């Protein structure tokens, strides 16, 4: 049985920056952290890693960055992410998240097949993933997942998703995402990856980072289904 482990933002959905807006609102009383957020490229980062990075910007700039990152406590991160989830719920109530072309039909077709498990493999907190995918009408497509609330490093999230897939009977897995971080985390966890160029990175760039499969997008549903279920080189 093959487990297909999907990233969320930029892979399944588009939001026009709703997640960044929500986090910015959560940081409104912390101007240095909010300023750092505006400078960052968040593609492929986990929620906890993003919160750690922006909070580290509040520290003494004479202290090396690695030390400042280590100095950010779990409770500090948790406090920011609680406010973030509240702000994200408001964004989702405004229908901020929409499914990318082909995603609805592709997931329906995959669900209808035997021998396929659909799961999530995302840096979003579990509650954040639920909010976003419910908004986009996709939450019910997934039986399980690995989330940013399970771990901070992306490779650990992949390992968690894969462990849960194995508990459901999976014998092989494929991670699907739109950034090199998705590809590298899949490989760190011992799984192949499919890069989908629906975000910032091109098919060529995703292939250069070692993705075993690459897709421009999911608009050609039949081809996407065939590749996701075909041989993994």
Notable features of this structure?
alpha/beta; 13% strand; 2 domains; Rossmann fold; two-stranded antiparallel sheet; six-stranded parallel β-sheet; 233 residues
Word description of this protein:
The chain is an alpha/beta fold and 233 residues long. It has two domains: 2-15 and 98-229, Rossmann fold (3-Layer(aba) Sandwich); 18-93. The chain is 49% helix and 13% strand. The chain is built from eleven helices and eight strands. It has helices at 18-26, 31-39, 47-56, 65-71, 74-93, 103-112, 126-136, 154-167, 180-188, 203-208, 221-229, and strands at 2-6, 13-14, 98-99, 116-121, 144-146, 172-177, 193-196, 213-215. The protein has a six-stranded parallel sheet with strand order 5-4-1-6-7-8, with helices on both faces. Helix 1 (18-26) crosses helix 5 and helix 2 packs across helix 3. The two termini are 17 Å apart. The mean pLDDT is 94.
